[in-house]
Amino acid sequence: MKQRLSPEVFSIPVQEIQNGLYSDSYFIRTREILNKDNRHPRVLMQVFQRQHAVLCGIDEAIAIIKKCAYNPEKLLIRALHDGDELKPWDTVMTIEGDLADFSHLETVYLGILSRQTKVATNVRRTVEAARGKPVLFFPSRFDHYAVQAGDGYAARVGGAAGVSTPANGIYWGGKALGTIPHAMISAYDGDTLAATLAFHKYIDPAVNRVALVDYDNDCVCTALAVARELGDKLWAVRLDTADTLVDKSVIPYMGTFKPTGVCAQLVRNVRTALDAEGFTHVKIMVSGGFNVERITEFEDAGVPVDIYAVGASLFTGSINFTADIVMVDGKPCAKVGRKYQPNPKLELVE
């Protein structure tokens, strides 16, 4: 049986949510009206979305209901699991009970499901494009820090091999990965080798040594310089050439392809140079503008990449969840165009 994350894993501002701080105002007013009018039918709320997707956020949505609903012990929740594959219109969760007890939560749990399912689905598609090669989740700098925990968990559900911040791993005990930033190389007067040696000297030996080698726009020479110094201690080099630059090693090959950024020719040049000097153990990590389409092109062409570090593309697009009441006091009652869609895969939440 699949395990769910405990509601205690999540840091939830219960009082603020119960007070409606994060809810659309009409849901708060709905609760006020129902209570003042003493109207308490038992409803069945059904949650779904409209795409092929990888579900994520369901455990946090359940935690929101359990912690922030009024009289949560009177609510009956059935739900799928994080990581489940979805088809359009699949019911992912139902909530049965007095609407006044949970009306104020709809904005919050739908937002969690929409955000995390989008990230998990984007990561899964990227991982599939990489055909078994590790994909690292490195987009946290492109959004508000408050979403990092949920995003990192969604990345894990989607199949990412690693995350970049401690917050990304907090729900599941994952450790943050990372290489050397350009800023550190600048702090060593632009000397990549000096910066890498400092990393090697002071950082726990259990951390893989990955050298960032594009600072001088001469990835081949920089990669070789670091490899000659670190030898078998060097685990990988990372190529991150800006899309507005042509690496020095690529210039002689220009003419029939887009030469800027981390192009296929650059990766091949670095691989050939490392192998020629016996550094076949050194992996090549690439970053900078990678997405499903670009990774697919690289894999189709047999470009010798070992690891993809992917950023902003993992936040693109949208997956929107909807909640509808479809039953009232055991009888069908829904807006036109909606109806009860039973899903036998739903499991009762204890």
In the predicted model, the low-confidence regions spanning at least 5 consecutive residues are none
In CATH, the architecture of the largest domain is: Alpha-Beta Barrel
CATH C-level class of the largest domain: Alpha Beta
What is the residue-averaged pLDDT? Answer: 97
CATH topology of the largest domain: TIM Barrel
Percentage of residues in strands: 15-25%
The number of domains = 2
- What's the quaternary structure here? single chain
Number of helices: 11
Task: For the record, give the distance between the C-alpha atoms at the N and C termini, rounded to a whole number.
Answer: 13 Å
Can you count the beta strands?
Answer: 14
Helix content percent band = 25-40%
- Tell me the structural class: alpha/beta
Give the spatial strand order of the biggest sheet: 13-12-1-5-3-14
